[in-house]
Recover the amino acids of this structure.
């Protein structure tokens, strides 16, 4: 199970990685939207954990770059409050998103990740 | 009737005044024209229009025609002496003995100006005398029925214009108050949202590490207790920040057809225990013909819980809290009221209670109403309040059934009495 964490804050990247790796997930991290777009274009992830406020570009730009598999996977967990994703997105596409507003506990993180990964 | 009387000047002056009243937005234009036409048509030396200043209870000059500066400078005249019963009955008062009549406050000056005869024409709005037009003549004269009727008719038109102007003033005032209040709250909201977003990242770091670390320390160690405190306190911060975000535009409502009565029932369920502990009676009158509104049920539940908690906290033991829901007459909006018989909210506090962190309670965060305000605004609704100190408070929420169109100004309005 391979997860990409996109956040410009080291503490968040590092903390999430530590907790997820302890549970046996494979984790990669990037700090910018540009790096994240590169990463998802050349790797297959089961899940992307995404902060929307990134230094180079708005995190929503990553949405299009994440390849679309079956049943709306891989899924994207947006680490902020509920945002409206109405902008010309189909219902299936919208269903790919989940929200985990910061701050969250390790358990809340693991529960969200489990819920949003297949199998 | 006097067949020899020429009605044309009366008729023409009347027509002129009416047309100015209907076309002019400036009340002063109307008043100037009225004193001028009165003098001209009736052959008076001059006229003064005085309007009531509600604060000082004195009649102050608002327009004049043909009167010397010296006489005008005499100052205001008292209301009580001038307004007599005849005045209240909307009758023209003829003052022939100007030297001895108590209604004339500066008889010597009047004589010096060459006035020998005065008439007073009362102006009234909604049965209250709001002013007087006084006409000054060089000699005593008689008026025909037609002339007296005409004098009264002009006064009525003038009063009408006055009433209209006051109404517009009060609306404008209320609107301005509302607008500045909403503006202030939205600036506060933007600031709060900015701070909240900035703080959420460091809080996320603290919460992630502490919640993970606590699993790695041997149970019972002092360090475990310390970590638990860090976790609890961080979660407390999270709640405050969430409140701030809810108050600002932070969280979009997830709207779906919602039955408000069900949401009210849920909120009451949550607080059943509170009511019981504080021995507060709860009465509900929920509309039997309730219609669904597009709304975020969990957010509205939060609003009702906030209002109900405030009400429970406000009333003494044995007090009563009432929840009433109703459907608007045109069935395009619904209204929910939360009413208590607590101490009420003073005028000074009323302007502040929707601001984040305003609280008069020792343990209050002051976010309950701020959050509620934000949520109702996101539903394009209005939250208003009526409170009468000593008698209780009533919060009124109105939500439009469908919210496709932006209603613009999210409102707060306050009124004196329930
Ligand atoms: N029903 C009421 N009767 C009297 N005063 C009220 C009532 N509701 C609110 N208030 C006043 O408004 C203030 C603000 O209310 P608000 O709910 O925003 O904050 P709080 O109740 O003080 O704290 P919190 O809700 O965050 O615990 C209160 O402290 C109180 O002074
Ligand atoms: Mg409260």
């Amino acid at each position: 199970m391979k997860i990409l964490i996109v956040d410009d804050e080291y503490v968040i990247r590092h903390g999430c990685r530590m907790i997820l790796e302890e549970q046996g997930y494979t984790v990669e991290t990037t700090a910018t939207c540009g790096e994240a777009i590169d990463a998802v274009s050349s790797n297959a992830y089961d899940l992307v954990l995404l902060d929307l406020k990134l230094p180079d570009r708005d995190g929503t730009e990553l949405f299009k770059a994440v390849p679309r598999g079956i049943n709306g996977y891989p899924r994207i967990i947006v680490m902020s409050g509920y945002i409206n994703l109405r902008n010309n997105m189909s219902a299936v596409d919208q269903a790919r998103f989940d929200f985990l507003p910061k701050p969250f506990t390790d358990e809340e993180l693991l529960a969200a990740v489990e819920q949003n990964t297949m199998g | 009737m006097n067949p020899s009387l020429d009605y044309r000047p009366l008729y023409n002056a009347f027509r002129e005044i009416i047309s100015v009243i209907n076309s002019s937005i400036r009340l002063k234009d109307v008043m100037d024209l009225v004193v001028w036409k009165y003098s001209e048509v009736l052959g008076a030396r001059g006229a003064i229009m005085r309007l009531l200043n509600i604060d000082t209870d004195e009649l102050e000059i608002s327009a004049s025609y043909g009167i010397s500066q010296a006489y005008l400078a005499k100052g205001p005249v008292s209301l009580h002496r001038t307004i007599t019963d005849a005045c209240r009955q909307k009758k023209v008062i003829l003052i022939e003995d100007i030297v001895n009549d108590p209604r004339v406050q500066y008889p010597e000056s009047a004589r010096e100006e060459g006035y020998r005869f005065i008439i007073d024409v009362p102006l009234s709005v909604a049965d209250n005398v709001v002013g007087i037009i006084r006409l000054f003549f060089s000699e005593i004269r008689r008026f025909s029925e037609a002339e007296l009727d005409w004098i009264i008719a002009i006064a009525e038109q003038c009063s009408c214009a006055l009433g209209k102007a006051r109404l517009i003033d009060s609306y404008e005032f209320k609107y301005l108050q509302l607008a500045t209040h909403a503006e202030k709250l939205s600036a506060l909201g933007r600031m709060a949202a900015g701070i909240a977003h900035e703080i959420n990242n460091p809080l996320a770091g603290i919460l992630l590490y502490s919640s993970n670390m606590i699993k790695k320390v041997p149970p019972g160690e002092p360090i475990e207790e310390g970590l638990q405190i860090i976790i609890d306190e961080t979660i407390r911060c999270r709640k405050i920040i969430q409140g701030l975000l809810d108050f600002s535009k932070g969280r979009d409502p997830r709207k779906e057809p919602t039955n408000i009565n069900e949401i009210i029932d849920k909120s009451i369920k949550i607080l059943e225990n509170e009511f019981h502990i504080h021995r507060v009676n709860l009465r509900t009158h929920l509309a039997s013909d309730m219609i669904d509104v597009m709304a975020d049920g969990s957010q509205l539940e939060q609003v009702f819980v906030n209002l109900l908690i405030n009400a429970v906290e406000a009333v003494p033991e044995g007090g009563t809290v009432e929840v009433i829901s109703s459907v608007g007459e045109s069935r395009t909006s619904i209204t929910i009221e939360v009413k208590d018989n607590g101490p009420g909210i003073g005028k000074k506090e009323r302007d502040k209670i929707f601001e984040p962190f305003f609280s008069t309670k020792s343990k209050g965060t002051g976010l309950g109403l701020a959050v509620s305000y934000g949520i109702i605004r996101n539903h394009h609704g209005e939250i208003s309040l009526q409170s009468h100190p000593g008698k209780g408070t009533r919060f009124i929420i109105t939500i439009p059934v469908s919210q496709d169109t932006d209603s613009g100004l999210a409102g707060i309005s306050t009124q004196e009495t329930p």
